Amino acid sequence: MALLLRLLCLCSALAVAMAARPPSVSIGALFTFDSVIGSSAATAIQLAVDDINRDATVLRGTNLTVLMQDTMCSGFVGTIQALELMEKQVVAVVGPQSSGIAHVVSHVATELRVPLVSFAATDPALASAQYPFFVRAAHDDSFQMAAVASVVANFGWREVTAVYADTDYGRGGVDALGDALEAARARITCKAAFPPGAGRAALSDVLVRANMMESRVFVVHASPDSGLDVFAAAQGLNMMGAGYVWIATEWLAAAIDSGSGGSARRTGLVQGVVTLRQYTPESDAKSSLQARTRRMNAYGLFAYDAVWATARAIDAFLGDGGNISFSADPNIRDANGSALRLSSLRVFEQGDLLLRKVMLADFTGVTGRVRFDLDGGGGMALADPAYEILNVGGTGVRRVGYWSNATRGLSVRVPPISRQQEQEPQNATTQTQKLYSVIWPGDTTSPPRGWVFPNNGRPLRIGVPYRTTYTQFVSRDPSGGPDGVSGYCVDVFKAAVALLPYPVPVSFVLFGDGVKNPSYSELVQRVADGGFDAAVGDISIVTNRTRVVDFTQPYVESGLVIVSPVKARSSNEWAFLKPFTPGMWAITGAFFLFVGAVVWILEHRFNPEFRGSPRNQIVTIFWFSFSTMFFAHRENTVSTLGRFVLLIWLFVVLIINSSYTASLTSILTVQQLSTGIQGLDSLLSSNQPIGYQVGSFARSYLMDELGVPASRLRELAITDYAGSLQRGPANGGVAAIVDELPYVELFLSTSCQFRTVGQEFTKSGWGFAFQRDSPLAVDLSTAILTLSENGDLQRIHDKWLSPGTCDAQSTDGVGADRLNLSSFWGLFLICGVACFVALLVYLARILCQFCDYHHDQGLPPERSLRRPARLGSIRDLMSFVDMREAEVKRAIRSRSGERRLDRSMGASSLSEEGPSSSLSRPSSSMSPV
């Protein structure tokens, strides 16, 4: 009974549900019938409606009808058609196709609460919260332009010319392109907009103006119906040859896929062009749909899925008991005498609920997984956008890579359709390769440089510092040459420009008043602000300047150094003592005596030259010790230990002599600093004034990086260097000058009384400054490297910067330090250890001989072995040590012979009385117990 009641309830509920579903539901479709996108979308939408009505599991008894309206590619007509469509009480609209129409119709949809599910309106501005009922069933141009920027960045281009239709669609796409390029450190340098419906002449005028700029990377953002006309005009202007880069957005792939304009014309106009296409993974459903129509592009595929997403949302809406009803809008009324019948427009009361059902769509369609995400300011768009990168060549296109929003980069890997696939391991080549090779216009596989010198007749304005000192670097040409400037830096620039494969007209402009050297930081800022296209001169590459301009490869090594006055070192009668410190003298003298005593001990018993009266032996020790300093000792060493010690000591003496000679020479000949400043540390620790060159970055570096107060700094012209250094701090001068190495070298070549002290404390160079992202800076860097390799850079240097009258000066000996013990303690340690080892070996040998000697004199051997220290008195030991080695050996040998004779005689006497003794003394074994 209970089961029967449940079945009855279920049947009743189904009957109510079936009764609640309307027999048919109408949706609208807005697009231009006679267009590349519209013709494909019309077929796709009709096929989608037929497939939905045939599938009983979708709307379950409700018939879906579609009302199509032709917008005729007109904003006004599209608006009127949209209003007429709303009068027919549609619950949703698939479209519109145009971004411009979408902006207007979205206001109507918001007022009437009718969701717009667009498959082709790609303007990123439509994602604004201003249009809550606009749902994008495709990818907007912000993602597409990010893919274009990735292609541009992949090939290292920095400047792009945007060619686009001057519509909401074109302007919105180019704005998105500018943002994407900025993130990739590139920019749009020229916006070439053409009006909708522009003819061949108007397009040619736009391209001619764009071609006068330096960029040769063109991004074409147009509709499939007008974009091919752009390439036809470019081909007529010979802009489709080698050196050009053409990137078309997805409209070109749509035109090629739909077969518009004829196959031969289509591919012949766009040879070498790179284009994009919205990525749709391969599937059986996609293949089946494409087999049913011959002209299906990506927009048609997204239109097909847009209808399915709308139908599924309607099914979910009806399944929840939704009731389709419309009501009048009190805000809409007919004006007196108006024939527009605005009051016939009705508000879809359940529009909010249907919109939420559309947003919850999640199914697999012909374009892959269909689900919506919030994009930007609250609008809805398809999640996980991806694009194919295509290259047109021959009679078709080939895929060279992909761009995926998941990775925000290029890859030859198929974009992942799930998290699991994204984490699948790939081989190293696939992971690192960005794109396959591209065939560019002109049938070349080498990536174009992407820019040329602008052909607009305006030469580059080159700022040149008007130096008043050391004009051999750069300044006004005194001979009145055609360029108006001359110098080492100018000649290097001209030589580098001559190596470029294209002409570069330039105009040199002097910067400065000619009274004092200009500020180089201001010159660099003028370049950054656009006052000059570049700056040529002795401009140091420092951090603050690299933030606002781009520099070429350095053509001169530079760095800050310190210049200080020097004076001749005054020598006196005791100058020969200065190489060594007092401690070094004391240790050296002590070791002479110590080594002499050790050698005397080791040689005394063997060498007659080390014997004699005590007075003679003391004299011998002193004479031998100090004569080794000059390797003039007369005494020969005969013992092995003595020769070992002497060999090590002579090596030590050799090192000490060499060091003494070098230090004394340095002290007597090298000059000495008069200010006491020996490097950067002593300069910073003092409170004396420091000079720097007018206009140099040395001031900011000393203050900002090294913390030198401004009160210590003095701005000087190079002509004032000598006088200020000679006066010194006490007379209003400076203690030292900090300047760049090239200036200092030129100054010291004619001012012999000054020297550099310490080392360079910055490492930089001179380069030519250009505006940010200027490709000319890169090409000139290559040319400067070529000048360096072929020797031209050195020849230009020798021409302008010949050495002066002063000899080559070294700062190594300035303020030479005296030699102390720390430099030689290792040698003394080796020598001392050798002496002690030799003495220990010698002492052990003496003790052994002493034991043998006294044992032979009849002392008990047990005592001699047990207490060797008491074998004889200290006097006996000293007497033994003073004996000659030969005498000791003779005495030991003679006594050893006497002992052997005594033992032999004792043995013979025992043999004579042996038998009788044996008979008279019974053995112990026979004795009674």
Describe it.
- It is a single chain.
- The chain has 929 residues and is an alpha/beta fold.
- Helix content is 44%, strand content 16%.
- The chain has 32 helices and 33 strands.
- The strands form seven sheets. An eight-stranded mixed β-sheet has the order 2-1-3-4-5-15-14-13.
- Helix 3 packs parallel to helix 4.
- It is elongated.
- The model is unreliable at 13-19, 418-430, 808-816, 858-872 and 908-929 (pLDDT under 50).
- Disulfide bonds join 752-806.
- Its main location: membrane.
- Residues 896-929 are annotated as: Disordered.
- It comes from Urochloa decumbens.
- Residues 1-19 form the signal peptide.
Strand order of the largest sheet: 2-1-3-4-5-15-14-13
Based on secondary structure, the structural category is: alpha/beta
Query: Counting H and I runs of at least 4 residues, what is the number of helices?
Result: 32
Low-confidence stretches: 13-19, 418-430, 808-816, 858-872, 908-929
What is the average of the pLDDT values? 80
Quaternary structure state of the chains depicted: single chain
3D shape? elongated
Ends apart, CA distance between termini: 134 Å
If you compute it from the alpha carbons, what radius of gyration comes out, rounded to the nearest whole angstrom?
Answer: 51 Å
Overall number of strands: 33
Q: What can be said about the biggest beta sheet?
A: 8 strands, mixed
Approximately how much helix is present in the residues? 40-55%
Proportion of residues in extended strands: 15-25%
Subcellular location: Membrane
GO cellular component, one term: membrane
Keywords: Disulfide bond, Glycoprotein, Ion channel, Ion transport, Ligand-gated ion channel, Membrane, Receptor, Signal, Transmembrane, Transmembrane helix, Transport
GO biological process, one term: cellular response to oxygen-containing compound
